[in-house]
Design brief:
Layout: H1 12-23, H2 33-38, E1 42-50, E2 53-59, E3 65-70
Antiparallel strand pairs: 1-2, 2-3
């Protein structure tokens, strides 16, 4: 899978550090709220579990809002009828 993401930030160096460290997932590693908060993100609502998977909402240090979703089975088909 290829993903292209463009985000405008005021200062490239700290933005690059944040995005690489916060979202540089590797096999067998999980993204945790503690790690995001140490890097300057704010997770005002804890991770929520649902029948279709998990969701957490965060705000990065640059004012961008994120909804991170995990669909353990059939992707978006988990939430369609």
């Amino acid at each position: 899978m290829r993903l292209l993401l463009n985000i405008d930030v005021p200062d490239l160096a700290p933005a690059e550090r944040f995005y690489v460290e916060a979202f540089g997932l590797r096999p067998g590693r999980r993204l945790g709220e503690d790690r995001l908060e140490l890097l300057g993100a704010v997770a005002p609502i804890p991770v929520r579990e649902a029948a279709w998977g998990r969701i957490v909402q965060i705000a990065d240090p640059f004012g961008h809002g994120w909804c991170l979703l995990r669909f353990p089975g059939n992707g978006y088909d988990e939430i369609t009828t």
